[in-house]
Amino acid sequence: MTRILMAIALISLTLLPLELTWTRIFSAEFFYTFAFLVLSLAILGLGLGGLMLRLCKAADRDLLLSPYLAISGLCALVGPMLVFQLGLDFSALFASMAMVGKLLVTVLILMSAFFFGGMGLAMLFKRRSAEMPYLYMADLIGAGLGLLVGLWGMNQFGTPVASVLVALPILAASFLLAAGWLRILPVIVAVAVFFVAPGSEERLTAPRQEHAPVIYTHWDAVSKLKMYDYGPDYRGLNIDNVANSPVNRFDGKWEDINPDSVEWGIDVSYLIQQFDSCRFLSLGSGGGGDVLQALVEGATEVHAVEVNPHINWMMLNDDTTGYHKAPFVPDSSWSTTQVDSAKAVYDTTRMLSVAEFTGNLYRDPRVTVVTEDARSYVRRFENKFDVIYSLSSNSWAALASGAFALAENYLFTTEAFEDYWEALSDSGFLMMEHQVYTPRLVSEALAALENRGALGGASGISDPSRHIAVYDLPKMRRKILLLSKRPLTDSLRYYALGPLTPERFGQIHLLYPPANDSLANNQIARIVNDGWRKLADSAKIDLSPVSDNRPFVAQLGLWRNLTSENMQKVSNYAEFSGFPLSKVTLLIILAVVVVIILPVNLIPYLSKGEHLAAGPWLYFFAIGVGFMAVEVVLIQKYALLIGASLHSIVTVLLTLLIASGIGSRFARQFSNRTVFLAIIGWLLLDALVFRYLFGLFGGMPVSIRMLVAVILIAPVGFFMGMPFPKGTLRVGPLVDWGFAVNGAASVLGSVLAVMIAINFGFSLALVFAAILYLIAYLCSANKEYLAP
Fold first, then answer.
1. pTM, two decimal places
2. Phi then psi for 315, rounded to 5 degrees?
3. What is the pLDDT of residue 458?
4. 374 vs 205, 313, 642, 762, CA distance in Å?
5. Fewer CB atoms near the end CB (10 Å): N or C, the chain?
6. Taking a C-beta distance cutoff of 8 angstroms, is the pair 103, 88 a contact?
7. For residue 513, cis peptide bond before it (omega within 30 degrees of 0)
């Protein structure tokens, strides 16, 4: 029995990290929406593997168990590398049947690892169905350990190498269960793992035209970082091939800097100089450009808040391991002597770390370096900061949350603006820049100020529009929202980001209040004057404010923009121009599950012998949808309490998996009534009550917030681990069919939960999950679990 439990844990120790590492890889290389599509479909293979045992008796042989696991490990090893050879271009997905074919091949390739792993798990469950509480416990605890191993591997060895090494546990399970010469198979694949791992980063990188020479690359569980060398005085930090942060050369000599001679891309010097002793907060400080400007312009206290730990590590450490110089390219007009002289200088110049390149900016005593989610940090302060500065603070890519999450952050919600407002000093300013979100941000800022106005008294705001200014920077293709704690004067609006002279109109001008009559009817001004609802029917993008209960600010697409013309030109950023890319992605997954996968799970009814009765079939379906819906919602919902970081994913998912595993062990000790009422009741409490506790604990240290999350999640996780083993104890050897139905339902549950959350919020998604568990409870009352 011990050997079986160990094998099950080892299988899960591979399958869950596959989700994590593949999510990271495909998010960085193909954008996270497409990673969600591909991996959600690929994970359907887990349930299909169980179904294969039910449909094909020849596949259900003990001798094949070890080979199945070895093949799963092999597919885990080579699958992503084969995908990168296909030449996928997701921007042509809706315009090219060839690309649709490549997508199908991609899904089948990636599905294979889960398919054969699912066959192995289902076979083990089927052979010892009477011991399911222990088997399912091993499965869940193995997955929990897999979470830790996967994250540790990505941070220790880099994501590409980790994605290869995670095949080893399932190969160990194959070896453990093999007999005789069959042990050679997992050994051969394991040797291949160690052979392939060193060159995996090159094999798992999509070809692209870089903006400049890449002199440094780091790829961990949070992001893929690249450092561009744009010349002797400027570098660029790129995150996940999407977001960019400037890194400016500074020699550390403050006395040599003349602030009047420095030109900033977005100049907030006037705002800083409104205070004798400016306290400055950078939301997403990145490569330190915001911090440098704040110090040069006279800020006496600067808080550099960055959620990505490796970025702060780079800004603080002189280690140049992994750096390399940009290639030496002489100017074509140089003479031979000039080339030789320049080459000599190039050869003798030492590569500078980011910390040295920026003059050890972050070691300045005026700078407080914070590695934390900015929203969580802000909630600790009241009337603290004179200037809060946010320059394109994005978190589009899923962190390490697995295939089932369209990740968002909480930096741009209505409640976030209320938190920023509370953190500002009595005369403070919030400057928030973004390329695409600004119309929605204006809606949210107005809603936040209206909420403050509803409070009345000293903190009330009579006219929110007097506290807002919005600027357009046409050449930079950016817009800036300025929020002032005190009503803005015309002078402040004019000078806030540099004087708005006629000569600079092409560089910067006001959208609200409109700079001239020709701009009087612009979208931003209409949102402020008339409210977003009056524009909603005609706007190209979604203008509705998002909240902490529905933080999907990047989901700007509208169904009315789903036209054949628009589908011909879909790109990674189609969502930002109004195309409902995320919703279409969810709809594709939903269609595949409903039209193909669920009907396939009905095929066993056509065969002879014992069948699951309708009630048990629906039971396994309901708990599959419900469990995954809860998991998806809790992962994203509790990121608000803990902060959108690895602390959040580890705390939430590990707690849920381990608590469920422990609950499975005690499944026999609790009645169905107790189990399901506990789950339903706790989910309703989470949906309706627990979110109010987030504000109470939001300003506390992260360790306390993590502990609170564990306390709020562990009880429901404990009972959620019981329905599956309780059901399988009644169906016996038909567990392979129940496992298949449960697997398909899990993918469906993730999609439905995200769809509900995007449109109606997390609370309703949890209510939906509670309804599914109620359906499962009603199905469990059916005494006929098997039908002839």
1. 0.91
2. -75, -15
3. 44
4. 30, 17, 11, 21
5. C
6. yes
7. yes
